[in-house]
Specification:
By secondary structure, the protein is of the alpha+beta class. The protein has 2 domains: about 280 residues, no CATH class; about 190 residues, no CATH class. Strands 1, 2, 5, 6, 7, 8, 9, 10, 11, 12 and 13 form an 11-stranded mixed β-sheet that branches. A hairpin with a 6-residue loop joins strand 10 and strand 11. Helix 4 packs across helix 7. It is globular. The relative contact order is 0.11.
Length: about 475
């Protein structure tokens, strides 16, 4: 069932067979923990021999591994196996109403639907019904396309936002008597997830009517004081996954047009590749929290990095300055919140500091910062960037949130935050960090001694995840270093 005027399809969803341990079935999105192999190794151990989506996804921490193609082949084989042995059971056409509890919020509500890729455009200035809310980095699409192009099923991790202040689409469904399709605890303190089937014709009509009201062009233009086409759906998270689905759909259309694939027009327009599963979330949901995304750059030339930043902003008619600070608390006090200056925290070469940009050309700090990072990566092929969501995910990497930054690592955030990411890799594989052993901080000193060695004077309690992560580093790189208890 397709609702063209609101870019929506009533999907047919696959769920694992009855008796499946859902705690092991469900794993975090593949684009999380992209610098933490230890997390994914732990999940692999937990799900070994069990029915799990880990066998059906490609964790992006492994994207640069030599066995990439073998992994993709194994993923497609596992998908076919799950389909042929009835591990996955096709549900009748329906939406799935979702209620999730996390360590941060008691409830966040969502609705699993399929959206029409024909009505999505990620390009700047798009006027489509479904639009991106961030720049789409095209270089991120090819590896995702390789994983998806021969996959018989999709496992999306896409959140799409709707602006529904009167709460007419999702929230009223929780007043109905609905069949529960899953109800379980998530791994790794991920929270609790409950899903309800929504297949009653009157409720489907209720949902689509409410979305049609939000998509009314006259009301939309009055509400937002604009003179443009309606944006009913805004990408909240997973924009590159949605863009990948769009690329696969575009390729299918091109193959049909070239005679490589034989489909009638009606068959093509009804093809599953035209649609992508997403979770709709109301931007007014009290459980929806917006967190900073930390930018972490690896293998940079820290001696010249700030000079290159200053030169870049100067050529774009913006003044750049960097003010060193003694600690994080001084940094936070120094951050500017006025609209005529953008400022953000960074740590580089063991130094806290505040970057300031006068006369910014954009409203958001991240819009000012990201073009420079893209420019730097394009001109430094050995450097790479990672995006870390949320303070806690960053802090979990570390023995202490107040530790100084490593050589060859640059960490910054686009808005005032409390913690940053400082990890372990430095030039030529040298490690210069403080690590954990038996709940005690020890110093891992690099050799020769001209590489930076960090001095820590206090012992701090450490979580199990941190101990495992750094114990692996010590074991792997013990030979060139001297360990010193503190």
């Amino acid at each position: 069932m397709i609702f063209n005027n609101i870019g929506l399809q009533l999907p047919q969803i696959l769920l694992p067979k009855s008796g499946t341990d859902m705690q092991y079935w469900s794993v975090i999105a593949c684009d999380q923990y992209t610098s933490d192999r230890g997390y994914w190794q732990r999940i692999e151990q937990k799900t070994a021999g069990k029915l799990s989506t880990l066998n059906l996804i490609f964790p992006e921490v492994n994207l640069e591994d030599e066995d990439c193609q073998d992994r993709i082949t194994n993923i497609n084989t596992a998908m076919d196996h799950y389909l042929t042995n009835n591990s996955l059971v096709e549900q009748p056409p329906s939406f799935i109403l979702v209620d999730r509890k996390t360590s941060e919020v008691e409830s966040r509500k969502g609705l699993i639907v399929a959206l029409d890729l024909e009505q999505y455009d990620y390009n700047k200035g798009a006027k489509s019904l479904i639009r991106a809310t961030e720049g789409t980095i095209l270089d991120r699409l090819p590896p995702r396309i390789k994983v998806r192009q021969n996959a018989p099923i999709e496992l999306p991790h896409i959140m799409v936002l709707i602006d529904d202040p009167k709460k007419t689409v999702i929230e009223p469904l929780f007043d109905q008597q609905l069949d529960t399709v899953y109800d379980f605890e998530l791994m790794e303190n991920g929270g609790h997830l409950t899903g309800y089937r929504v297949d009653q014709p009157e409720l489907i009509s209720q949902i689509t009517t409410a979305l049609e009201t939000l998509a009314d062009k006259e009301s939309y233009q009055q509400n937002y004081n604009v003179d443009e086409d309606v944006m009913l759906y805004a990408m909240g998270d997973g924009n590159h996954s949605f863009a990948t689905a769009k690329a696969i759909w575009q390729q299918l259309k091109e193959d049909v047009a070239a005679g490589k694939v034989e489909l009638s027009h009606d068959q093509l327009m009804a093809h599953p590749s035209r649609f992508a599963l997403v979770e709709l979330v109301n931007v007014h949901d009290v459980g929806l929290e917006f967190e900073a995304i930390h930018r972490v750059m690896f293998s940079i030339e820290e001696e010249t990095f700030l000079d290159e930043m200053k030169e870049y902003f100067s050529t774009h008619n913006m003044d750049f300055s960097f003010t060193p600070c003694t600690d994080l608390s001084e940094v936070e006090k120094s951050l500017s919140l006025n609209g005529e200056q953008h400022s953000f925290t960074c740590t580089i070469a063991g130094t806290f500091g505040v970057c300031r940009i006068n006369n910014p050309q954009y409203t958001l700090v991240v819009a000012t910062l990201q073009p420079f990072l893209d420019h730097y990566l394009n001109s430094h092929s050995d450097s790479r960037i990672d995006y870390i969501h949320g303070d806690q995910s960053v802090t979990d990497f570390l023995p202490s949130p107040n530790m100084t930054c490593l050589k060859q690592l640059f960490s910054m955030a686009h808005c005032p935050v409390k913690h940053f990411l400082w990890v372990k890799q430095t030039r030529n594989g040298f490690i210069s960090n403080v690590v954990a052993s038996n709940n005690t901080l020890i110093e891992l000193q690099s050799w020769p001694p001209n590489y930076r060695s960090i001095q820590i004077s206090t012992k701090l309690p450490l979580g199990q995840n941190t101990r495992q992560n750094y114990a692996r580093v010590v074991t792997r790189h013990a030979a060139p270093y001297r360990l010193k208890s503190i």
